[in-house]
Amino acid sequence: MTETAELNTQHPSAWWSDQLQRLAEHSEQAVFVELYKHFGPKVATYLARLGATAAMSEELTQETMLSVWRKASSYKREKAAASTWIFTIARNQFIDAMRKQNSSPEVPSQDTVEPVASDDPVGLVDAEPLRREIKNLPIVQSQVLYLSYFKGLSHSEIAADMNIPLGSVKSNLRLAFQKLRAKLRTNQ
Fold first, then answer.
1. Of 39, 37, 19, which Cα lies nearest the Cα of 28?
2. Residue 80: helix, strand or coil by DSSP?
3. What is the DSSP letter of 108?
4. In 94-132, which positions are buried (b, 16+ CB within 10 angstroms) versus exposed (e)?
5. pLDDT-based confidence at 118, cuts 50/70/90?
6. Rounded mean pLDDT of 92-116?
7. pTM over 0.70
8. Rounded distance between C-alpha atoms, residue 41 and residue 143, angstroms
9. DSSP per-residue codes, 112-150
10. If you ran DSSP here, which 8-state letter would residue 150 be given?
């Protein structure tokens, strides 16, 4: 087993963060290829789960990975895992593509933010009732949802932007999803 493969299986999260840092510092093509081989198929699957067609998923995967190459220097390992950073880029690429098509994207469910999350907090196909209920949320909860899912900001960025503690961002998101889930289930 090679040293690279050994590190990859022993400490995958830290190892991928190291790889991104190497890419940022040295622009090594071999590192990029390794990142692409590992994350490319995962990003494509993730985009398909968001609703991208096969062709759109392929195109957005390439755009996402090119952004990883170009923006590797902006990655901050203390803020997010490499996978979180890459999937956030992919989500933002998807939202931008949907906006360009003059189509508003459905609000991504909590399980699409991280590919490993367990359940869909809302469980809807029709987004109109969701939009209506978001407007009825307390202002802080609706702002946190907007910044997270439409602007693509991380929880830390939202906390800084709104000047509130990180825990408040997370609890407001959780409360918003609980309220939306309850309201939308009773309206069905």
1. 19
2. coil
3. P
4. bbebbeeeeeebbbbbbbbbeeeeeeebbebeeeeebee
5. very low
6. 58
7. no
8. 32
9. HHSTT----SS--S--HHHHHHHHTS-HHHHHHHIIIII
10. I
